Description:
This protein has 320 residues and is α/β, with parallel strands linked by helices. 45% of the residues lie in helices and 17% in strands.
Amino acid sequence: MTCAIVLSCYNGEKYITEQLESLLRQSRQPDRVVIWDDGSSDTTPSIVESFIHEHQLSNWSFRINEKNAGWKKNFHDLILSVEEDIIFPCDQDDIWHAEKLDEMCRILETRPEIDLLACGYVPQYDDNTRRITKEIQQSMNESGTVDKLMMDERFMYVLRPGCTFAVRRDFCHAIAPAWDVALPHDAMIWRCAIAKGTAYLYQKSLITWRRYNASSSNPNSMAQKYTSKAKLMLDFYVDNNDSHLLFLNCLQRLIADGVICPDEETKRILRENTEFEKTQRAALLSRNPLRPVLCALRYRRYYLTKKSVLAHAYVTMMAR
C-alpha cells in the first residue's frame, strides 16, 4: 500500500527542521510528502524549501497558501488532496521515531478492519505547559498490542493527537461530504472511526510530542487568555459545546447516508450525548453555578474528569 505524509505549517521556524529530519530518517520512506504553509510571517517557507532542495526530495512538494486558511481547514484540504492509500497527518513541531511509518503501515496492510490507527507518544515539555492528564496517561502503555477503541459515553474525547494517526484515504473520502471545516481533523476522524467501529490504538510510542504554551493543540494556549476574565473562559466552554454539537450533526448525516451504521447502543449514546451537550451549554449560560453541577450528576458518564465539573461551576459563578 502507498502512504503519504501531509504536513500543515505556520510560523514554525523554531522546530520544523527537527521534524523534517525525523521524516527523512523513516525506515520506510513515504511515497509522497505534501507540505502546505498557511502564510507564515517567519522563515518557515525558506527552511522547508531549502531542506527539500538540499536533500533532492523529488517526492516532496511544498506550497504557500494565498490566504491564511487556519489550521483546521488547511489539514482538511491537505488530507483530501492526496491519493495514497494511507495518510499520516503531521504537525510542524514534533519528532517522529524512525519506525513509525513502517510499523503502522504494516498493521494497516494486514488488518483491513482498521480505518484509523493511532500510536502512543512521549510528551516533551519545553516550558511550564500543562501536563497530559492522568486519564490519557492511563490509556497508553508499551505492550505493542493493537486495541480496539470501543464506543462509550466518552468517545467524544480525543485521547491521541492527529500527529499519531495513520488513516485510510477511503475512510477520509467517505466522511468528507459531512466534514465541516470548522472541526479539527483529528476530532472528526477519531469520533467517526469509533462510531463506525474501526478505530484502534497501537500501544507503542512512535513520536515525541512537543508540548509548549504556544502550541495550537495545547489547552493552555487558549486558557491563558481567559484566566483573568471568567466571561472569556465561559465563552471558550460554550464554543466547545457548539463544536461538539456541530460534529454530532455531521455524524447524523453520515448515518443517514449509510456511511456509518450504528447499533442500538451507539444510537443511545449519540442521542444522550446530544442531550448532554445541549444541557451543559444551557447550564453554562444560565449564570447559575448550581446548574453545571446538576448537569454533571445527570450525565456523569459523559465527563472525562471531575475537574471539568468544578471548572464549569466556578466560571459560571464568576461570570455572573
